[in-house]
Amino acid sequence: MKNGIFFGIGVGPGDPELLTVKAIHAIQRADVLIAPKTEKKDGSVALSIARPYLKPDVEIVYQVFPMVRDFAEDPSAWQENKEEILALLRAGKNVAFLTLGDPMFFSTYIYVYRLLQHEDVTIETIPGVPAFAAIASASGHPIVEGDDILTIIPATARPEKIQQAMQASDNVVLMKVYKNFPAIVGQLKENDMLRRAVLVSRAGLDGECVIEDLEAQKGRKLNYLSTILTRRETANQDGAEERKECDKR
């Protein structure tokens, strides 16, 4: 029996209309959808985004993936998920792994891909719209232009690494801004990047929240899916356009 195809599909940040045509076609070719989730949460955000395009008879398999930091210490859960995927593929089923944003950008899919890439299976990875690109378009906030240097920083990195990256950059995207928001606000201010900053949580999803006055709300508890776009302040830059902010709770 011929093995099925393994698809890694980026479903974008939240709006189902941001899925690519290729992603939709792959979803509709799939016999099985792998919906990743953490042990702490029920359901799958990626699956909810893709749901308008699912075939009525598609099989949905939820797989729990521990946080990436635990991968080296205990890969057993990852290995079990790999074996489950391989069994489905060897049964001739096409399997699609759904992931938020882009599959090769801060994604659980990267680790699944590495586990499968040396197996005798066909893998097709389909890119998706990352959250920062969707935020930039919706907010009228250019990500980078001209000769500017752009740096994408995980806000979970060590403070000294974040500081070095900010100092070397004209424009910055900060991902995963949820644990150390007050400290990030301080670093943005120190690097003349605070006034031009916009933060969006849950872009394109229910409960989307836009914050422009970051300093005024630096004590706010943020969702894991929170992203900041900003640029270094210069004398010839116009002020940012007024945008709808989330209520200050």
UniProtKB/TrEMBL annotation:
Alphabetized UniProt keyword annotations: Cobalamin biosynthesis, Methyltransferase, S-adenosyl-L-methionine, Transferase
Classification via InterPro entries: 4pyrrol_Mease, 4pyrrol_Methylase_sf, 4pyrrole_Mease_sub1, 4pyrrole_Mease_sub2, CobI/CbiL, CobI/CbiL/CobIJ_dom
MF-aspect GO terms: precorrin-2 C20-methyltransferase activity
Ranges in coiled-coil conformation: none
Pathway the protein takes part in: Cofactor biosynthesis; adenosylcobalamin biosynthesis
CDD domains: Precorrin_2_C20_MT
Pfam families the UniProt entry points to: TP_methylase
Enzyme Commission number: 2.1.1.130
Record bears the keyword Cell wall biogenesis/degradation: no
Any one GO biological process: cobalamin biosynthetic process
Domain of life: Bacteria
Annotated ranges, domain Tetrapyrrole methylase: 7-213
Sequence similarity: Belongs to the precorrin methyltransferase family.
Protein name per UniProt: Precorrin-2 C(20)-methyltransferase
